[in-house]
Amino acid sequence: IQRIYVRPPHADAFEQWKAYGWHTEPDAEAAADEHARFVEMLTSEVPDVVVGREPVPGDPDAVYAYDPTLVTDAGVIPLRPGKEGRRDEVPIASSELEGAGLTILPALEAPATAEGGDMFFLDDRTLLAGVSYRTNEAAIEQLRPRLAEQGAEIITFDLSHFHGPGECLHLMSFISPLDRDLALVY
Q: What is the pTM of this model?
């Protein structure tokens, strides 16, 4: 890993934890301390750690920096989260990533919805994407030609769910890449 983007927690946003489906109230001070230690660990190992600073008002999920964009070899594709409360993250993350020198590509357009947690690159040419309450077929159809221009394809999976849209699981809830040729799969 040469570069990584992270977002710190903001106590004001944590006040909306129930509205975002969190099961317990977060400890804002403990989360801030943990994030600071996390950034310290990253900066000791990763050459370029980009820390997003602009808060996303009322959005505790903004700490999940992977979800609002898809980073490709050609640049960053701003996504359109299926969870409406997360849509304000997209322009903020895009602006911060552009400020870090990344190229920002055209954003997904309605009716497409997509969240980064539903997709990851298996290798340089294959994007795995879960279709769910948060990532729909319209998003896949907008992403397919863009990735094809880069020589990549998309393989989709229908994702299971628990109690409906408020408790959906992302593709990365089922698979965690651990190394180039190793993943933990549930």
A: 0.94
